[in-house]
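One thing: can you check what follows?
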Amino acid sequence: MTSVQLLEKTEVWLHGISLDNANLPKLADAVADVLSLPRDKVFVTDVRPKLVVLDILVARVELEDVTGKQEELLASIRQIPGVEVADTATVHSEGILGVIGTPRAEVDRYLADARKLEHQISAYAARRVAVVSTGSELLAGEIEDTNFAAIRDAMAAAGFEVEFGGIAGDSEAEIAGIVARMSGEGFGIIITTGGVGAEDKDHTVEALERLDPNLSTAILAQYKRGHGRHVKDAVRIAIARLGWSTIFALPGPTHEVKLALPVIVAGLEAKSDAAELVEAIAAPLRSTLPHHH
């Protein structure tokens, strides 16, 4: 299957559709079923003369599930009482969902080209690294960010192309948003620094859980919740996946980042399993933190 990101182009326009007391949730469910999407992620958002607009609330779709589905989609909604579909009706989107309207005779060729292109893009993205620093103190300019230079030097020496992805404040939504944007811009590797501790300002791992609920984590140190400033019981690092991007959540101190980088490079070259790699990264980092149980 060829998974692609919608990149916020999620509207689908059904032209040539007239409604007469039609059940809009049933119409949305019919579209979801044809496109193999969860029913709770497809909604009718606008109805106008001979036009119905739907929004698809997913980040990615499988091309094989949506390409060339115009005739099947129109036939399905035609069965709903109160829905009239003109012979000239079409399905349109300004984004990747425009492939719904691909003529059936061209579907196989289109999918073959898409798979080839995806492989090429994935291979290119796998050598691109974005570094995202976190922390309100960085945003305020109170401290110097020395992590980007350390990551750039180590990863560039291993043949990677490294760019600065920006600074995120101490906010799950902000961190998740920047990471998702970097993934959408074609960075196969994203490294975040900071925000993995046990204090109330540390939200990076939780932000990545929004993007990948099945992420792999490793504990660096454990604490008694509520002891001092600790509102969580552990310091954790993580590896998450988002599309073709692998995201590493590392601690903020540069000496810890430098300890992790050789392990990351070796793991990427060996195509190590995320659960194994995150534990390998944690091993040299555990000795840098006091362990409280």
